[in-house]
Here is the input.
Amino acid sequence: MSTTITTWHRRCVGDVPRLLLAVAARTVLWSVLLLALWSNLPAILGWHVTTVVSGSMAPAIRTGDVVAAMPTGPDAVTPGRVLLVEDPDHDDRLRLHRLRRVEPDGSLRLRGDANPAVDRTAVAPDAVLGIGVLRFPGVGLPRVWIADGAWSNLIAVGLTAAGLLLLARLDRPILAGEPCRRCGTPRWDLRTTPMRPRGTGTATAPAAVPLVAGTLVVLIGLSTAFSGATFSGTTTTRAALGSSEFGCFHHDPADAVLAWDFAEKDGTRVADVSGHGADGFFANAGAVRVDGDCAANPSVQLTADGAEGYAVTTTPVAAPNVFTISAWFRTDVAGGRVFGFGSDQSLSSAYRDRHLFIDTGGRLRFGTEESGSQFKFAVTSAGRVDDGQWHHAVGTFTSGSMVLWLDGERQGSRSDARSLRQYGGYWRVGRQSLDGWSGSGAFAFTGDVDTVRVHDRVLDPATVAAEYAAGR
Here is the structure.
């Protein structure tokens, strides 16, 4: 029987951190490289690829982002789309703005998300080069820095890249099986043929070889997995390294701290387009998206039959003391909570106020609850709102001033509401308990809701009127 003679060496201390650092550095370098390559791939398909050099489309599109615009026919050029056009004011430039409306003469009126007004010059339909489809964040920053002479940024990026390259080489001695330079201990023996007694069989490969090969396969597999997640087609945060698609555009949420437009195409997530991270989700089957193209203005439809639907924020926040809440809604049912604040994510909350709801008489009410005595303050609209038409509801509160607006008109106010109940909770569209609120009727809202906003200040009458005039 043959006997294999082998030697065993103790593992060199400190190899694991070096391996992890090297793999992490290579993953970052490959991710950036592949993202840059991926951003240029649409050009091969005949798409227009451009680098954004201004902040007129922030926060959805930022300076240094690369955008790929897909050529398309005139039927796909609908309000809300991001269009790449020949700049009507500069012959040597392109413009990337959203289509706000189509004028009676067929020309296109665009607007940047960050701009307070539409562009002064309309765009001819034949000046459209394509519709923005993919965004590659930050890929074009070096080009912007060169144009602006921001050499310090370029030097910093160069030094970072050099540092990553050095880190990526940390594991070369380990993979080569070289002895540890600090202690001289061999990591593994890759070169010595195992010794057998004279005259027996042939040498076999050392056991360390398949071990090393397996380790490399695992590391490559992990690197590929992380890269694959990095380069997904859509992202859930603006900071994610990957391409993203553009949603529909309603109107600028201004300084809102929560803005739900319900323009996502699928899934249960409700995206906060204000940029403050107040995302939510749909609960129960009674919340149904009313999808369509951007011109159809997507919204959410809530039903009270069976599973009562609602949308609620994911993360709790403190109930505000100064605020404006607003929502567009449509219903033919007298009763139901449109939008407001509550202490829990479940169907019922122990505390609930700062809300807009419809009473049993078909009128809109704005309610808040006082701290201490828990007295409930309410302001009611003059007319009914259960007429099946879209209405714009706004409630504002600051100590000593509580005002309700409907369709741009002031409905009433109170000056005796001064100190509200303080608790942590969630913003919610749709079903919520209204126990204790006079004339509340049904808890579940039946109808459509769109363009929900929360501001951490009181909007003035001119702004409320402008929000109503802008539409949902």
In short: Residues 303 and 446 are 5 Å apart (CA to CA). The helical segments are 15-44, 141-148, 151-168, 172-175, 208-230, 461-470.
